[in-house]
Amino acid sequence: MSMALAMLAAVLMDAWLGEPRRAHPLVGFGRVASGIEQRVYADRRVAGVLAWSLAVLPAIALLWGIQRAMPVWASWCVGAAVLYLTLGWRSLGEHVRPVAAALAKGDLDAARAAVSRVVSRDTAALNDVQVSAAATESVLENGNDAVFGALFWFALLGAPGALLYRLANTLDATWGYRTARYERFGWAAARIDDVLNFLPARLTALTYALLGHFDTAWRCWRTQAPQWDSPNAGPVMAAGAGALRVRLGGPAPYHGRWEARPELGEGELPSAASISRALHLVSKGVLMWLICTWVLGFLLDGGVHA
């Protein structure tokens, strides 16, 4: 039950406090990763493996050692605090609600400016439907990356697991691009993130399906996800779009040119309402995960005491 209680405490801290406004540890980690890249970069996969290991493994070992040396209650507090720092549930809403609000007011320029802070695609030429799609896709994908993935690895490996997941996810966002510089150097960061996200992504997709229109979500997951480039984003976004019965995916502009992307979901065109519905879907998922964790903890504790 201590694991379930720590998860609840971390979620409540995230809901109450949000991300730290000053000196977020991930900002400091980004600087460390940048320094490591400057020192060991080479256009080879082995250099990327070395850089990833230097950036992540010492932090995981240090956290593990600190918790091992602490009393149980102090280790529990550290675990809850680490999980809180790896979550981005409240931040997810803070970033996309301005998009929905601007669209609801008919202020497309403000909506484009707001969505440009959360997606990597070019936003200047997007219409209201495309802005809505971009924000809705961001909510669904980051529901896994910023919420459920961290909860999964915390439940499995405690605070070191949550930290491992968050640092790996951060390095994938930093080095995992298919560009000339990172094609080989970023290979390890991208593949490790894929491995760590394999189970969480499918549990997230299942969560969306169970809490939305299940039949549509399952059909979209089964038929559309294999067409998506990312093996983990595909199931999450296809199931999420199906659960909401909204049409996502399709062509999007990146670096000055439109790129073809498969269609996701089915039903109505995305709008400000679909952004809000996606946020609500993630929130319901968080509640479901907490309840499941408490039930599982109760059953395991009962089994041990029996």
Average pLDDT value? 94
Fraction in helix = over 70%
Number of domains: 1
Count of separate DSSP helical elements: 12
Outline the biggest β-sheet.
2 strands, antiparallel
Q: What distance lies between the first and last C-alpha atoms, to the nearest angstrom?
A: 15 Å
Segments where pLDDT lies below 50 for 5+ residues? none
Q: What is the 3D form? A: globular
What is the C-alpha radius of gyration, as a whole number of Å? 20 Å
What is the chain-wise order of helices and strands?
A: HHHHHHHHHHHEEEEH
Walk across the major sheet and give the strand order: 1-4
Structural class: mainly alpha
Q: Give the percentage of residues in beta strands.
A: under 5%
Find the count of extended strands (DSSP E, 2+ residues). 4
Structural topology:
Layout lengths: L1 H16 L7 H16 L4 H25 L2 H15 L2 H17 L2 H8 L12 H48 L6 H4 L1 H25 L2 H11 L8 H12 L3 E2 L2 E3 L2 E3 L3 E2 L7 H34 L1
Antiparallel strand pairs: 1-4, 2-3
Helix pairs in contact: 1-4, 1-12, 2-3, 2-7, 3-4, 3-7, 4-7, 5-6, 5-7, 5-12, 6-7, 7-9, 7-11, 7-12, 9-10, 9-11, 9-12, 10-11
Structural write-up:
With 306 residues, the chain is mainly α. It has one domain (2-305). It is built from twelve helices and four strands. It has a two-stranded antiparallel ribbon. A two-stranded antiparallel ribbon has the order 2-3. Strand 2 (252-254) and strand 3 form a beta hairpin. The two termini are 15 Å apart. The relative contact order is 0.13. The mean pLDDT is 94. It is a multi-pass membrane protein. Keywords: Cell membrane, Cobalamin biosynthesis, Membrane, Transmembrane, Transmembrane helix. Pathway: Cofactor biosynthesis; adenosylcobalamin biosynthesis. It holds the Pfam family CobD_Cbib. The chain crosses the membrane at residues 47-66, 73-92, 146-168, 281-300.
